[in-house]
């Protein structure tokens, strides 16, 4: 249900709303205030050293540039390897027959460099796709694949700014990014058979202090809510998981287990030593009570993290989460079964690596 962010709740102002933003004749500071307790230690130290040393400032600029411009060909090839391994083990990218209803439709919430979508289109040559990708000027990666423009619609947009698609029709004009939110991109009739949710926040895209704390959290909720909200019955989703045993990951996996078939897959050829893996959800039932509840919850969390106070977000987050003992009693055994294969891949990779360096 569409809404506009409320005001006057809680005792503290929105975490993004500085004193400067509340005073009409004062601009919002472009750098963190050193005595602001909401700013992290590393931000304060970097701010100080940048003012004291031009060499340090140059180094900081190069770090950002380097983080956003890795070896493009190598990264693209890495993603192709991961995609092919996922396909070989799970056939995820092959959309099963849907009673002859065409066209098959694919949604990619974070396309660049494009390896996963390219593979999905190769496996489903008659499919149509809608893809979002963060613009390069905002820190996004370059799209490195050439796809048929008649079959694939690519929108260069920040998924975290899709307010209307996330249920917010009215943007507060005093918000620092009030003019940056995007109009609606998807409509209720837009449904998809397969969705890819592996968008990540590049460091150079989080320049404002007010966005740093919740940017990745907001992106996670945004892409999950939009993808599941537009998922067709029996569809599939691929979701990047940073660490299986992290609380957000557990709650995400637990939710999907209530309305889909879930498998956790960890590549063995690349990134084996890392804690990350992919959740593959198939046979999704988007009209299931728990699926609808999840979409509404993610939208609400995104709205609160975007427009309200840190206190309000923390309160909402806690109210929507059961206790750790209750979750482990209810879902712990299933989590262990789902996670064992991925944990074994990482354990073997780390063991081999330690043997090599010792």
UniProtKB/TrEMBL annotation:
InterPro entries: RNA_MeTrfase_FtsJ_dom, SAM-dependent_MTases_sf. Pfam families: FtsJ. One of its GO terms (biological process) is methylation. Coiled coil: none annotated. It comes from Xylaria arbuscula. Gene3D superfamilies: Vaccinia Virus protein VP39 (3.40.50.150). Residues 102-283 form the Ribosomal RNA methyltransferase FtsJ domain. GO terms for molecular function: methyltransferase activity. It comes from the Eukaryota. The lineage of its organism: Eukaryota, Fungi, Dikarya, Ascomycota, Pezizomycotina. This is Ribosomal RNA methyltransferase FtsJ domain-containing protein.
